[in-house]
Design a protein that fits this description.
Organism: Sporothrix curviconia
Shape: globular
Number of domains: 2
InterPro entries: AGP_Transferase, Aminoglycoside_PTrfase, Kinase-like_dom_sf
Protein name: Aminoglycoside phosphotransferase domain-containing protein
Structural class: alpha+beta
CATH class of the largest domain: Alpha Beta
Number of strands: 15
Largest sheet: 6 strands, mixed
Helix content: 25-40%
Distance between the termini: 44 Å
Length: 337
């Protein structure tokens, strides 16, 4: 979709960024995904050309298959995916965090749009680099400091109360809590080599239902006796807490700061420290049992390579240490392959 003049392309690009990155994001999560705009005298082809020009000038931060994250300057990034693969949970979850936990270090939702076969999700950019990139250069003392920062972040996250979604019937009329899973859509995601997603029309309202879902065989597969034997020993009474569910150094951005000039830290210790600036990728987040954060972090950890010591620095003072639940989950993971 070429256009005849560079001026038109620049105008289109400026209009795209103005529409996709408003100063005040739409408050309703359902308004986060916008239709592709053609106002201001620009055709859809001109918009596409302007957007492509912006992407070509950007910096590719991350890529996996058809998904690309591109920086459009120091303050804005766009996640590009196929329109059919757009995970609206990633948008609505982050919008929920922005609204209910504004103090949390997380990107701000700026907007999203679709054009043809592609979707574009715009958000603010975390300063610095990923913790994964910085990890080999951080000392043991520095890693303990990062752990302490994560402990504070995840302790704050878990303080948020699970919302009520309605009022029960009958003489008791107990308040009904929101279903487990993502904050807005109520979808539970169990991601391993395959990803299983709960039925949106049959939400999982408590841990008992979640456990039944976890041991249920996916299509065209049966549940072996060994897995059925696990269900009676799986607890149904963990606290349900706000969970990121993808805690990994690749999903954390950090920057090096002068210790003496960092108001959040006493001017003792090393001259420079690695400060967390943002927690990324909220697609898997939601209301889950208290053990979920730890177990999913352990499942994503690598026993070899530069991140082999990452499990030693998980913020277990906030998220807990759950060896039994991890062992049970590992057995389910072996079954699913």
């Amino acid at each position: 979709m070429d256009i005849s003049s560079s001026t038109q392309a620049e105008t289109a690009m400026a209009r795209i960024l103005a529409l996709a990155c408003p100063e005040t994001p739409a408050p309703a999560a359902t308004q986060a995904v916008l239709g592709f705009p053609t106002e201001a005298g620009l055709s859809s082809g001109q918009f596409a050309a302007g957007l492509n020009a912006a992407l070509r000038q950007g910096e590719v931060l991350w890529q996996l298959y058809d998904i690309v994250v591109v920086a459009l300057g120091p303050a804005v990034v766009v996640k590009v995916d196929s329109a059919t693969s757009l995970d609206s949970d990633g948008i609505s979850n982050l919008a929920y965090i922005n609204e209910h936990m504004p103090q949390l270090p997380a990107p701000k939702v700026l907007g999203a749009l679709t054009c043809g076969q592609r979707s574009y999700f715009f958000m603010t950019r975390g300063r610095g680099v990923t913790l994964e990139a910085a990890w080999p250069d951080i000392s043991t003392e520095g890693k303990r400091d990062v752990q302490a920062q994560l402990t504070q972040v995840f302790a704050d996250l878990r303080q948020s109360p699970r919302p009520r979604s309605g009022q029960g019937q009958g003489p008791q009329q107990h308040a009904i809590t929101a279903p487990l899973g993502s904050f807005v859509m109520g979808l539970c995601k169990d991601t391993r080599h395959i990803q299983r997603v709960s039925n949106a029309h049959d939400p999982l309202c408590d841990e008992e239902a979640l456990n039944d879902f976890l041991v249920k065989a996916p299509p065209r597969r049966s549940t072996p006796t060994s897995i059925r034997m696990l269900r009676p020993v799986m607890r149904d009474d963990h606290d349900i807490v706000m969970t990121h569910a993808d805690l990994h150094p690749r999903n954390i951005t950090v920057e090096w700061v002068d210790n003496a000039s960092d108001a959040s830290n006493a001017s003792t210790g090393p001259a420079r420290r690695c400060k967390i600036t943002s927690i990324l990728d909220w697609e898997m987040a939601g209301w889950y049992p208290a053990y979920w954060e730890f177990v999913k972090a352990m499942c994503n950890a690598s026993p070899r390579g530069p991140l082999s010591d990452w499990p030693e620095y998980l913020p277990t003072d906030a998220i807990g240490l759950w060896p039994v639940e991890y062992a049970l989950d590992s057995l389910i993971g072996r079954w699913l392959g």
